[in-house]
Amino acid sequence: MTAQTDKPPVSPIVTRFAPSPTGNLHIGGARTALFAWAFARKHGGQLILRIEDTDRARSTPQSTQGIIRDLQWLGLDWDQGPGPAPGSCEKWDPYDRDSQLGPHAPYFQSQRHEAGIYDKLIQKLLDSGQAYEDEDTVRFRMDKDIAFNDVVFGPINIKAADLEDFIIRKGEKGGRLPTFHFAVTVDDATMGVTHVIRGQEHLANTPKHAALCDALGFDRPQWVHLPSIMNADGSKMSKRDKAKAARKAAKTYTDEHGENAYNEMLLQSHPEPMRFFDTGENRPSTFTSTDFLEGRTDSAMYVSLICNGLGITPPEIEVDDFNRSGYLPHILLNYIALLGWNPGDDTERFDMQFLIEHFDLARIGKKNSQFDRAKLAKFNAEALAEMPAEDFYCILIDHFANYHHEYLDKLNYAGFRTFAAAYQARSQTLDSPAQLGRFFVYGEFEYNAKAVKKNLTKNDGEGLNVLREFRDELASCNDWTADTLHSLIESFVEKHQLKNMGSVAQPLRVALTGSAVSPEIGPTMALLGKEAVLNRIDRCIKTVSP
Ligand code: GLU
User: Which distant-in-sequence residues (6+ apart) come within 8 Å of 509 by Cβ?
Assistant: First the structure.
């Protein structure tokens, strides 16, 4: 065989993911990136990551870093674009020209603008009369009918009369930068992109892009628009949903407790509650609580203040939200692959190898898909339960080291192994053990009234009596291990001729956790430690005794 025949054929497929760095990567963006990635990988093609930062006021380097970090967390790689982030990306500069990969660098539109790529082509359109200057901007003349075929939505025909001339270069105020429409068209063509896979919100922009391609003499790419992702209530899933949830909770709280209590609640986590700084959309500005409650700002900082203060978790929208909540990246990818695509049969659980093998643009449907949180949680719970115990332990340590360090401090590593084992089968997410096992770290819980009645006070305080007597046994126990504690309960049950282990374990559970649910009682007591167990029993007896 000659060297030539050994070479794999060069794939003609080039696709790209082109986020605007105006915020975190949200679930819709992740689905777009996944489909572009799967399509490129299936065909042995190229995936370009291009950063569309021509909106100077809204683009931030932090957003670029965040998007790259999130793509890496998901395990989606690219062949051209900014380099991958190093382990710690805080001080890393993705704009650094030397770290960008690929023959079409730079991959930031701001840098491509500085290199004169867009201005040269705008001049060409001005010279040929296809564009004209209007006050201080440049407009493109939309004077022809446009027809194109979208891979998902089919043929689209627009009459010239329904089209308006549009701006391709902003004026002085916009830094004389090209508009999104111009930059995206030029970049796709000059980077050799064959397939533009993106969200449906860009379908309406596509006649402009088609007309620009024609005027500049570029081949048109294939356009593939992905249907929208909707919430259960039929609204479009968007990052505003988090602010919406926080606003609703804040209003309920204010209605029930009054404005003073609301401000007091905010004060707990913020020194000066009445003036907040919004670095989000458009420009930095200050705002008041009323501005937020009346919907004039969606400040992410304010949303997290409310959520922390009220102890609520807003709906996950951005990829980082899912990471924080403890979803596994490959499960999130598996789930979002099903939003608008299917493998042609009922298969729902698959890995990325399967997706690459089966991915086909022809199986992307036109219909909007609904984001089914319960289904994602089920996928995640199954994956966590199926994991070897050691893997679960390692992955849980990692998650808790990032988000719930107090559990590691309290339980230490050996204890954390028991903790992980106790919750593996019952965890929907890596955060579940922090909620289910909160009592391991925080002793100031309330007692569930039903559990108290059933397990402690009914039948003239039968359970409370057991608790009082068993406390003495515990106080004299000198081998505080799960096995010994278990045997201690067994012999107590036998000695006092009680019904079963539950006759002791249930009163203990209420005293130690506030509810009648906990992992096995022996390991639970072993983990809590003797002092905490005795103290909690004392507090419980004192609190619930009539
Ligand atoms: N930068 C655009 C956005 O983030 C995407 C443009 C495209 O994919 O063509 O919405």
Answer: 451, 455, 515, 516, 517, 518, 521, 524
pLDDT of residue 278: 55
For range 326-344, the mean pLDDT? 97
Q: Which of 163-172, 212-221, 268-277 has the lowest average pLDDT?
A: 268-277
CATH topology of domain 449-544: Arc Repressor Mutant, subunit A (1.10.10)
DSSP, res 202: G
Ligand 1 atom nearest to CA at 32:
8
Same fold, 14-230 and 449-544: no
Q: The dihedral of CA 384, 389, 395, 399: what is its sign? A: positive
Measured CA distances, 167 to 150, 173, 177, 209 (Å) = 24, 14, 11, 12
**C-alpha distance from residue 173 to each of 55, 57, 359 (Å):** 11, 11, 44
Average pLDDT over every residue of 212-229: 97
Structural tokens at position 346? 């009922």
CA atoms of 334 and 38, how far apart (whole Å)? 12
Tokens of 500: 């079963």
Q: Is the Cβ–Cβ distance between 202 and 52 less than 8 Å?
A: no
Element of type H or E holding 15? strand 14-17
Domain coordinates in residue numbering, the chain: 14-230, 240-310, 449-544
What is the dihedral sign for C-alpha 314, 316, 319, 322? positive
- Distance (angstroms) between ligand 1 centre and the Cα of 19 equals 5
CA–CA separation, 179 vs 166, rounded Å? 10
Strands 369-370 and 229-230: parallel
CA 20, CA 198: separation in Å to the nearest integer? 12
Residue type, 518: S
CB-count burial class (<10 Å; 0-12, 13-18, 19+) for 27: buried
Beta carbon of 52 within 6 Å of any ligand 1 atom = yes
> If you write DSSP's letter for every residue of 343-385 in order, what string do you get?
-SSS-----HHHHHHH--GGGB-SS-EE--HHHHHHHHHHHHH
Cβ atoms of 283 and 57 within 8 Å: the answer is yes
Which residue's structure tokens are 């004039």?
296
**Res 268: pLDDT:** 76
Domain 14-230 class, CATH top level: alpha beta
Residue 18, ligand 1, Cβ within 6 A:
yes
Is 358 close to ligand 1, i.e. is its CB under 6 Å away?
no
State yes or no: pLDDT of 8 exceeds 70. Answer: no
The rounded distance, in Å, linking the Cα atoms of 505 and 521 is: 6
pTM passes above 0.70: yes
Closest ligand 1 atom number to CA of residue 29: 4
Q: Answer whether 71's CB lies under 8 Å from 55's CB.
A: no
Can you list the positions of beta strands (E) in 238-314? Answer: 276-278, 285-287
